[in-house]
Design a protein that fits this description.
Length: about 240
Amino acid sequence: MGSRPDEGFANRCVRKVSALSRPRYFPPPHSAGSDGFLGVGGLLNPQWLLDAYRHGIFPWPLGDGTLAWFSPDPRAIFEFTGFHVSRRLRDTLRSGKFRVTFDQCFADVIDGCATAGDRRSGTWITRDMRAAYIKMHRLGYAHSVEAWLGDELAGGVYGMAVGGYFAAESMFYRVSDASKVALATLVEHLKCRGFGLLDIQQMTPNSRRLGAVEIPRRDFLRRVAAAVELPASFRD
């Protein structure tokens, strides 16, 4: 289990906010409009991606495939104490219907997120995005949670971990409730590992039902700055 920072550590994090708000490769994230658009171009290599996530920025290709970068205002997050587990979901979790694993088939999870339902012809997970996150997984930054029904991958979620900050990128299901089981397991896992922030980028009706909230970008950026400094890790 990750350790919680002491008061002195928290104060040091606050003093670092101004420095962390100055990305190397991007405009200041607070300079973006409410839609979060910062600009286009750049690279999907580890240096650019880590610089982005450490400053509350994420890549999101436009409809024509052009690589764009965003930091929206407000920002959607899950508070670890506010995740809503419905009676149905609680019963499913207790039943053991799904077997849950971590980092067992990252590429399959990202492929599921790109192709499940009606996403096959309209996914933002381009070939370059897929390759970039698989590389980040190999480097230990990108992680997946898998929900299995028997030997079949039924659903999952993946995202990026930097210090005690986790940015959930996408999730999918092939069996009802599988993605919710994966997400609920992720929330509990991050809480137990000492993470400070679970980012979901933008609000959706489903995430709102699960307890997600929106916070102003200025508050989100301060929390990112503190979270990335936490001595937490997704896996041992």
